[in-house]
TrEMBL record, chain A:
Biased composition (Basic residues): 481-492
Protein's recorded name: Glutamate decarboxylase
GO cellular component, one term: cytosol
Any one Gene Ontology molecular-function term assigned to this protein's record: pyridoxal phosphate binding
Signal peptide: none
SUPFAM superfamilies the record matches: PLP-dependent transferases
Organism for this UniProt entry: Dacryopinax primogenitus (strain DJM 731)
Cofactor entry: pyridoxal 5'-phosphate
Pfam families associated with the record: Pyridoxal_deC
Keywords on record: Decarboxylase, Lyase, Pyridoxal phosphate
One of the protein's GO biological processes: L-glutamate catabolic process
Disordered, as annotated region: 475-508
Coiled coil: none
Modification N6-(pyridoxal phosphate)lysine, positions: K288
TrEMBL record, chain B:
Enzymatic reactions: L-glutamate + H(+) = 4-aminobutanoate + CO2
Gene3D superfamilies: 3.90.1150.160, 4.10.280.50, Type I PLP-dependent aspartate aminotransferase-like (Major domain)
Organism expressing this protein natively: Dacryopinax primogenitus (strain DJM 731)
Cofactor(s) the record lists: pyridoxal 5'-phosphate
Keywords: Decarboxylase, Lyase, Pyridoxal phosphate
One GO process term, biological-process aspect: L-glutamate catabolic process
Protein name: Glutamate decarboxylase
One cellular component term from this protein's GO annotations in UniProt: cytosol
Length: 508, 544
């Protein structure tokens, strides 16, 4: 054809710079990319989905790499198929049982599998175990404390005694959520304190703290500091004696946030679960060694007697009233689906294979760490060979001009996130480094890490202490700067373990 | 009546399974199959239900088993019962999946996620007219957690105040309407605060009337929770009236009672549909507000927000200080580790939609809800209890109406301000004439019959004191398009008329719905109401 086209003069084009429209097909060519993105106030106008997604995506590049995060117990890897299931179910609301009956069924199956894994008694049909999924171990622990408090109140009221000063007995090395549960539910915290070289609760000293106002004794299966397991069986034995003396009915809750999916596979003969007579409830994080992504925990009770009626809510779904016990209501369903996927996919054999590998990797790492500088440099603070969680914790025993925090800082510059901590209250002069071995921390990656650790020590050995001090100050200032933005800042509290002892609360 | 007995489906299957060998549960050798369906590899494959299997299956098989199981769930799109959002653009889904392995609690490792969280709080504070630079807040798993955090702050502030005055802090109470979501009552029971439920009436629009509520307030009241968007009928409880009454109360007695607004559903509706409506921090008595990001915030389930007017509203002893490598963070939450992805989804929406985008969606929701309401009323069978289709009373818009007339303009029929304010929710029941003419037709059958067509429209009783009134409720969300509204109206009319015309159908329905739930398996192994006794809940746990 022969249509004539005009060629507009430059002047005419410049008079109508329709810039926004004709290059908005690319993200970075759009006018939006040259502007600041809305940060503190919603913009008036819309933005194309592609552009918005890219901007948020780019913003997140500043986040650390989950795979190199050796600080956290929380799962960072799941199979493609599991992720696919999760995408398919993102739009489902977990509590909407009426609409999504299959979700309810799956939760129920998971509770069954976990209760059996924890050896819940199956012999009495009038006292069956009960359990529930939660967002994480924090919710599970707050629920358990709530139930225990209510049960204690009811018992005390029935006996005509005061219900004014409930307390919980626990090791001061507990995760922060215990402190939270106690403070929010107005229960006094009674701590057994660690001392140099003694980081797991001493059953006798701990039980000595129990009195008639004790609602619960907490046992830790997997200390977040050293990975060690507390002696639940012994605590139970002493507690029974104590109960007889005092005429009380105190029970144990086992915080198996990290150990619940490890001990049954690497240490099946360890007595810590419902086989121990005084254990009334257990929590475990599905998103730690349960191998699902962040957002699922579990709480299981020995039987319904431990859940007083007044804290349960009956939720009426068309023709089928259901009993609920939760602090959250609507929530995502995908993490529970992920949990069931892992149970089917792996079976006990699969979990055992993974946990055994993790144990081997942890043992390898521990041996390598000890071997550095012919065994003169570090001292191990953790258990090995399945006696604790698959983590490696160690401290400097040699006389050096730098500390554990300097090593952590140096490793961070290579991309590794390895936290340095001070020990639990009353042992806080001890500092330590901790590596959590997760599913995706393979032997190969471990070898790379050992190499970088050795390099870090070589570097620090050769660096004068003034420079190390300078680096420490610089990083402190950096942290202050980057968190300045719009965060709440105020100093307060005098009561917490943090305020009294400078207790650091680890990521978990 | 047909004679029948209850058949245990599991026993039936067990009996039918004549060759109990080669079950997944009992295989001796660990073999990972690549095949997926039973027909390909294992005719007797049984999905493990109660016990973890000794040996696993391939990732493909595990995927397919669960994927198929999930097909028994309803379709989120046709779920008209719930406020919870069910659709996000592809880009948002992708973004969330990219970040599904990030733990929000891990503040040190994921600083960019924290920055985005802070921005969301700023935007919400700004949207709700909080004093500049003073609001503080946090993301939660949903409004339940947010309400408990809000309630706990009210309780602690009250305790501190009473202790400072040397008065007893033993008998706290909290006031809210009987139409409240179960989370409010749960807070009261778990945190040992007496719940004072304000009865609701037809005259009070099925929600709390501040003039009734004020009668429940005394020196031990830690706060009044006002609901912006009753889940029953979508009515807004008047925050400003409540605040005025509490101002007067303070003048008379010197007792200062704060307000917490439960804007679970309305927090993302009111600011966009009714930008000049006063309900948020522009009322000085409002101490804190919660909302659900996963309702009209348009994010998938798992996100709520609570914002406090300023740091004074949040007693310091409730805040936990966490120290990570070189930095200090403050947290106020009941959960610890949890997914970061929903927060990123919220920020995506804020960027993608902006104020105009949210407004456009809410206006469309309200318009669809009006069309549905009008259609139901025109049918003559149904009476609509929600009000958003009724033109706004003259007092408010009358002046504007006159102004319009003066310049010869007509009121904008698309503008939500031309109608009574509320959530895009339609609550309806049979008209009195209908009930008189067909006394044997039960309203709950409509729910059952609609379900057979795939629609989920719940039928339930109004809150205590009106509990003999049953309502059907349809929540209009972003994904409930005009087309779906047309279809559901057509089906509703067809069903209603079928019941009216055919005298046998009601008979059949009565037989069918008289039976126990047919979906026994879903409830197998769950704690039943009988196990815990009954009558311990005053509000109802509505889906929301």
């Amino acid at each position: 054809m022969g249509f004539l086209s005009t060629v507009p003069a430059t002047e005419r084009l410049e008079a109508h710079p329709d810039h926004e429209h004709y290059i908005s097909s690319t993200v970075y060519g759009s006018a939006l990319a040259a502007e600041e993105i809305p940060r503190f106030e919603m913009a008036e106008e819309e933005m194309p989905a592609r552009v918005a997604a890219r901007f948020v995506h780019d913003e997140l590049l500043m986040d650390g790499n989950p795979a190199l995060n050796l600080a956290s117990f929380v799962t960072t890897y799941m199979e493609e198929e599991a992720e696919k299931l999760m995408v398919e179910n993102l739009s489902k609301n977990f509590i909407d049982l009426e609409e999504y009956p299959a979700l309810g069924e799956i939760e129920s199956r998971c509770v069954n599998m976990i209760a059996r894994l924890f050896n819940a008694p199956l012999d009495n049909k009038d006292a069956e175990a009960v359990g529930v999924s939660t967002i994480g171990s924090s919710e599970a622990i707050i629920l358990s404390c709530l139930a225990a408090k209510k049960r204690w109140q009811n018992l005390r009221k029935a006996a005509g005694k005061s219900t004014e000063h409930p307390n919980i007995v626990m090791n001061a090395a507990v995760q922060v959520c215990w402190e939270k549960a106690a403070r929010y539910l107005e229960v006094e915290e009674k701590y057994w304190y660690c001392s140099q070289g003694k980081y797991l609760a001493d059953p006798k000293e701990m039980i000595d703290l129990v009195d008639e106002n004790t609602i619960l004794v907490c046992g830790i299966l997997g200390s977040t500091y050293t990975g060690g397991y507390e002696n639940i069986a012994e605590i139970s034995k002493l507690l029974e004696v104590k109960n007889k003396q005092l005429g009380t009915d105190v029970w144990i809750h086992v915080d198996a946030a990290s150990g619940g999916f490890v001990a049954p596979f690497t240490n099946p003969n360890l007595l810590w679960d419902f086989r121990v007579p005084r254990v009334c409830s257990i929590n475990a994080s599905g998103h730690k060694y349960g191998l699902s992504y962040a957002g699922v925990g579990w709480a299981v009770w020995r039987n319904t007697n431990f859940l007083p009626k007044e804290i349960l809510f009956t939720v009426n779904y068309l023709g089928a009233p259901q009993v609920s016990f939760t602090l959250n209501f609507s929530k995502s369903a995908v993490q529970v689906i992920g949990q069931y996927y892992q149970f089917l996919r792996l079976g006990k054999g699969g979990y055992r294979a993974i946990m055994t590998n993790l144990q081997k990797t942890a043992d390898y790492l521990a041996e390598e760490v000890v071997r550095i500088q012919d065994g003169t440099m570090f001292e191990l603070m953790c258990e090995m060979r399945g006696k604790g969680l698959p983590l490696v914790a160690w401290r400097i025993k040699a006389d050096k001009h730098y500390d554990e925090f300097a090593i952590a800082r140096h490793l961070r510059s290579r991309g590794w996130i390895v936290p340095a901590y001070t020990m639990a209250p009353h042992a806080e002069q001890t500092k330590l480094l901790r590596v959590v071995v997760r599913e995706d921390f393979s032997r190969h990656r471990c070898e790379v890490f050992v190499r970088d650790l050795k390099d870090a020590i070589d570097f620090l050995d050769k660096t004068p202490s003034e420079i190390i001090q300078h680096l420490a100050n610089a990083s402190k200032n950096n942290a202050k700067q980057s968190h300045k933005s719009a965060k709440v800042k105020h100093h307060h509290e005098h009561d917490s373990l943090q305020a009294k002892h400078g207790k650091t609360h680890g990521v978990c | 009546m047909a004679l029948s007995k209850h058949i245990d489906a599991e026993a039936l299957i067990e009996a039918a399974r004549k060759h109990p060998h080669h079950k997944i549960l009992e295989r001796h050798h660990r073999e990972i199959h690549e095949g997926v369906y039973a027909s390909r590899f294992d005719a007797d494959a049984e999905v493990p239900k109660y016990k973890m299997p000794q040996v696993g299956v391939s990732s493909k098989a595990a995927y397919q088993l669960i994927h198929d199981e999930m097909n028994l769930d309803g379709s989120p799109l046709l779920n008209f019962a719930s406020f919870v959002h069910t659709w996000m653009p592809e880009e948002a889904t992708k973004l969330m999946m990219e970040n599904i392995n990030k733990n929000f609690a891990d503040q040190d490792e994921y600083p960019a996620t924290q920055v985005i969280h802070t921005r969301c709080i700023s935007m919400l504070g700004d949207l709700w007219h909080a004093p500049k630079g003073q609001a503080i807040g946090t993301a939660t798993t949903g409004s339940s957690e947010a309400i408990m955090l809000g309630g706990m702050a009210l309780k602690k502030r009250w305790q501190n105040k009473r202790k400072a005055e040397g008065k007893s802090a033993e008998k706290p109470n909290i006031v809210f309407g009987a139409n409240a979501q179960v989370a409010l009552e749960k807070f009261a029971r778990y945190w040992e605060v007496e719940a004072r439920l304000v009865p609701v009436t037809e005259k009070s629009n099925y929600c709390m009337d501040p003039h009734d509520a004020i009668k429940f307030v005394d020196e031990n009241t830690i706060g009044v929770m006002v609901i912006l968007g009753s889940t029953y009928t979508g009515h807004f409880e008047p925050v400003s009236v409540m605040a005025e009454l509490l101002d007067e109360y303070q003048k008379e007695t010197g007792v200062d009672v704060p307000i917490h607004v439960d804007a679970a559903s309305g927090g993302f509706v009111a600011p966009f549909a009714y930008p000049n409506y006063k309900w948020s921090f522009d009322i000085h008595r409002v101490a804190s507000i919660n909302t659900s990001g996963h309702k009209y915030g348009l994010v998938y389930a798992g996100l709520g927000w609570i914002v406090f007017r300023n740091a004074d509203m949040l007693p310091k002893e409730l805040i936990f200080e966490l120290h990570y490598l070189g930095s200090t963070e403050y947290t106020y939450t009941l959960n610890f580790s949890r997914p970061a992805a929903p927060i990123l989804g919220q920020y995506f929406n804020f960027l993608n939609l902006g104020f105009e985008g949210y407004r456009r969606i809410v206006i469309a929701d309200l318009k669809n809800a009006r069309i549905l309401s009008n259609a139901l009323e025109l049918s003559g069978y149904y009476k609509v209890l929600s009000n958003i289709h009724i033109p706004a009373p003259k007092t408010a818009s009358g002046v504007i109406g006159v102004a319009h007339k003066a310049v010869g303009a007509v009121p904008d029929l698309e503008d939500p301000e031309s109608y009574v304010k509320g959530l895009p929710v339609v609550s309806f029941r049979f008209t009195d004439e209908f009930k008189e003419q067909y006394p044997y037709i039960q309203q709950s059958w409509i729910q059952t019959l609609l379900r057979n067509k795939g629609w989920i429209v719940p039928n339930y009783n109004l809150p205590p004191s009106l509990e003999d009134v049953e309502i059907l409720r349809i929540v209009v969300r972003e994904s409930v398009s005009g087309d779906l509204i047309e279809r559901v109206v057509a089906d509703l009319m067809e069903i209603t008329e079928a019941l009216m015309k055919n005298p046998d159908v009601p008979m059949l329905m009565a037989t069918f719905t008289g039976q126990p739930s047919l979906r026994d398996e879903a409830h197998h192994g769950r704690l039943k109401k009988e196990d815990v006794g009954s009558g311990n809940t005053h509000t109802y746990a509505r889906q929301c």
